[in-house]
Inverse folding.
């Protein structure tokens, strides 16, 4: 019999690195970002005034998702801030690093945030890759985030074969 798994990266993360915690919905995530903003606002150099506005939590939640999709974590943001040119960029990166660390601390043991799932999957695959020695097919992707590239690299390293199928541009 064939042993075939059809999985998205998020489903693979749930299977290999899931912790059985409640999944955060968009509204709950914004609420937790709002709480994190209140906790660390006094540490901000740039966003201290914006952090007071309720609408900023939605903007900040979107920014955190984008930064995590780029494969960045709080220490990466602190490092980028240290080497950034321009005080404004330096302050913004530093503030986002502070916020991400506070948000991660709030969610760490109580909720499953899909934005953290790919990082946890990468950590789990470093320890044990259940797909090693198997043929892996990547189908119907139009592009990949940095976090997904990291996973692909880990999966390919142990794979027997790797196949990519991309949609054709019919124009």
């Amino acid at each position: 019999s064939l042993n075939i798994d059809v999985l998205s990266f998020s489903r693979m993360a749930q299977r290999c690195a899931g912790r059985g915690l409640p999944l955060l919905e968009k509204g709950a995530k914004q609420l937790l970002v709002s709480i994190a903003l209140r906790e660390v606002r006094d540490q901000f150099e740039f966003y201290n005034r914006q952090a007071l506005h309720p609408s900023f939590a939605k903007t900040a939640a979107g920014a955190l998702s984008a930064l995590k999709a780029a494969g960045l974590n709080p220490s990466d943001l602190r490092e980028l801030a240290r080497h950034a040119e321009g005080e404004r960029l330096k302050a913004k990166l530093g503030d986002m690093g502070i916020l991400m660390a506070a948000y991660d601390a709030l969610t760490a043991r109580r909720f499953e945030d899909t934005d953290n799932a790919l990082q946890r999957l990468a950590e789990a695959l470093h320890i044990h890759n259940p797909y090693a020695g198997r043929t892996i097919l990547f189908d119907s992707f139009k592009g990949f985030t940095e976090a997904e590239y990291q996973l692909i690299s880990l999966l390919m390293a142990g794979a027997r074969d790797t196949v990519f199928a991309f949609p054709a541009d019919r124009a």
Summary: The chain is about 55% helix and 5% strand. The longest strand covers residues 135-139. Residues 34 and 57 are 5 Å apart (CA to CA).
